[in-house]
Specification:
The complex is a heterodimer of chains A (894) and B (112). Chain A contains 37 helices and two strands. Chain A has 894 residues and is mostly helical. A two-stranded antiparallel sheet of chain A has the order 1-2. The chains are: A mainly alpha (894), B mainly alpha (112).
Chain lengths: 894, 112
Amino acid sequence: MDGFAWLFSMLIAGIGFLVVVYARYYMSEDDPVPRFFSFLLAFMGAMLGIVISGNVILLSVFWELTSIFSFLLISYWHNNAAARDGARMALTITGIGGFCLLIGLLLIGNIVGSYDLDKILAAGDVIRGHSLYVPALVFILLGALTKSAQFPFHFWLPNAMAAPTPVSAFLHSATMVKAGVFLLVRFWPALSGTYEWFYLVGLAGIVTLVLGAYFAMFQQDLKGLLAYSTISHLGLITTLLSLGSPLATVAAIFHMVNHATFKASLFMAAGIIDHETGTRDMRRLSGLFRYLPITGTLAMVASAAMAGVPLLNGFLSKEMFFAEAVETHADSILDRILPYVATLASAFSVAYSLRFIHTVFFGPPPVDLPKPKPHEPPRWMRFPIDLLVVACLIVGIIPAISIGPFLQTAVISVLGPDTPEYSLSIWHGVNLPLIMSAVALVGGALIYFALRKYLATCEDGPPILRNLKGQRIFERILVEVSWRWARTLERRFGTRNLQPQLRWVVATGFLAGLLPLYLSGFETRDIAFSGIDPAFAAIWLLGICLAFGTAYLAKYHRLAALVMLGGVGLIVCVTFVWLSAPDLAITQLLVEIVTTVLILLGLRWLPKRTEGLAESITLRARFRRFRDLALAVVCGIGMSFIAYAVMTMPVPDAIANYFLANAYSEGGGRNVVNVILVDFRGFDTLGEIAVLGVVALTVFALLRRFRPADDSMDLPEQQRIQNRFDEDRPERSAGDTVRDYLLVPSVIMTWLFPVIITFAVYIFMRGHDLPGGGFSAGLTLSIAFLLQYLAGGTRWAEDRIRILPLRWMGAGILTASATGIGAWFFGYPFLTSHFQYVELPLIGKMPAATALLFDLGVFSLVVGSTVLILVALAHQSIRINRLRAIDAARAEEG
Amino acid sequence: MELVLSTAIGVMTGCGVWLILRPRTYQVIVGLSLLSYAVNLFIFGVGGVKTNVPPILVDGVPTSVLADPVPQALVLTAIVIGFATTALFLVVLLASRGLTGTDHVDGRNEPK
């Protein structure tokens, strides 16, 4: 935090405090006040964040936050359409600006090699000399100019006046719009001083300065006048910054402070007038001085400051501006016309300030006000204005003593050693700036009295230009882009069908793989042909046949396809064994079993599909199939080539060596795969088991509400045949055959239960040193449970054994996390493992790593999830009986 | 070895792609399983195709001849996650079939 940031945060905090005091009296009792204050204070926090961030990325995050809170504050009265539209427009414009700013800051960070503000500011020459300077500058300026409502992005600010007045006073005069110029000052040492800077910033600033002041004269809404005046004053600051001279920057900083003081007080005064009379329309207001003498006086002083009347703070910075305008900085038309433009804009500003005061406070008493008897507001509602106006006076009369030291600190922190000599005093003798001021004051008064009659009755907005509204253009564009274009694109390219989407995904994937080959050419190098093991080739010949068979039969012969798919899986499993990956082979085998059972359970609920039914194959369908076949063939061939190329490439010296070298010394295990899973990459595994748990719960939840299609409600054909067989024979009762089915295998399966459990424990215990581990042990145990269900049926199994899969899952994830957290107590990062060998009686030396505990969690969760999924699916056969009973009862009633 | 393996990967990919472009949910789930075999083998193959090497640390054997553990660890998790997604997809297709009465991937037989 340097002097400039300090000055700005004082401004934000100080005016923020006054606005909060003011808002306490301004907000009506019907408004949800907690929401208002929480947004306002959150905004203040974000604003302070912008000002004191030392990292530019952080700065842009706070920048976006101010846009969001500004949106929420403008739309505070959200049942008002104008507030909603204004808020949306402000968010769109400043949001796009914020995004541009982020791009610009990333470019700058890229140029400098650091996102540290200090380093960026110190690297001004590097940035200005870089080829990316212009794009970076343009993006940053887009951010700053949209935020500060500079032409051509100025139109959102008047629309934002639908916000409650305290918000306008705080956000849209004193702070948020100042963020843009704050940013310009902040990056002034790094970016300014080039022709691009001068033209881009200067043009925007000068146009905004004049147009804003011109528009302000013709507003009928008090807050509209102040909004355009704010735009114009921000244009003045921007113009000063464009000049690239240190003295102009001093003036810019000084004017920021001055403008915040008088404009905040004027907004509050406008709020009081609105509050007391019920309207802000200047055509209806008049002669209020007799009702609001104190507020009137305060408003007069503040608007005199805005007009730049001597003895007030606005005069001082305006004089500095004139002095800078007269100086020649970069010889060009823009620079030469600046003195005249400055005087003209200043005259406009005198005119609108005069109008503000004269229309509202003087003239005949008002007639037909919404609230008939205006009176002075409560003491504390006016207190913030008192304070601000006194500040205007003090700074205006004794600038060197009051604001001088603060300004000096701020200026030095921006300009560093280049800080120029400047004098803050009221009287510099009769010189050109003083004459310009005098011309502006007299000219402004003349303009006002010339236009007075017209202004008293005219429509809102300046003549001719009132028809050309930035807001209209913006809304047209918005409708065009977000409605017409979006709809057209959706109609052209969107589809709700899955197949075209997948086709595009696959085709894009294929092209993405092909493109690099096409661009850089396919290098054919000597590939050592390592020969073919005939046995390996033979099993894969079988595997390939099975894969084709699966693809061919999946439509009409689901069971056959499933068996073949299982066959392919087994061959993959054999491949893993062959290629020295026993861990994978074990896991693949177990998963294969579980998946097959799972799909078998699901097959029951799919519709019957018999081959050869009159399915007329249209030409389109034929074409579609041919296209899919072509896509499948090219993808397959491409994948083959890539796989062959990758596998014959020499394996680079990769991270594997690190794991191999450290698995034993740091993880305490010889099975490197397991050590990677539970130790080195334990956090990934924790995430993975969490996913597994989430999937299991989702499956469970989906199946609770599952209702099969009507044609799946009947008993399966096989069961019907068996039952009929039972009914035909008097010695058998119904269901006997089902029960006797596979009697011998079921006895074996029942007896295998303890064996498999022991096997699971064995796989688990040896996991750290030999192939095995939590995953495979968990799957093994769940297969043990599964076999009991298969052997005896769901009811039989559940009568004898109560598995609580949810508990297993919960225990698993808790154990794994607790193991990870345990490391914290010993001062290590999350999931650091510890190991040692312990001597156990009978068994002998055992590795006892905390990773083993983690693996226990994995084990438990895998058991729980797998069993939960399978049991939930198996239970559907029982549920369907209930559903059938309900249906039957309904049919009887009906 | 590499030739056989890469041909197999290609065939499984082709069959998988063909199946996931079919209109029936069951074809898609089988296709996804085939694709996941292919992808798993591919990732595994990235670590080099080595036969008859020790997969675990053995005293006296230099680590350079060992099988690459990183792709193995990756594939191991991929297999388990693959199981989870297959289960989820299966249940979603059953629910969709129960709700819409059809096993077409779009939930209706005739595409609009």
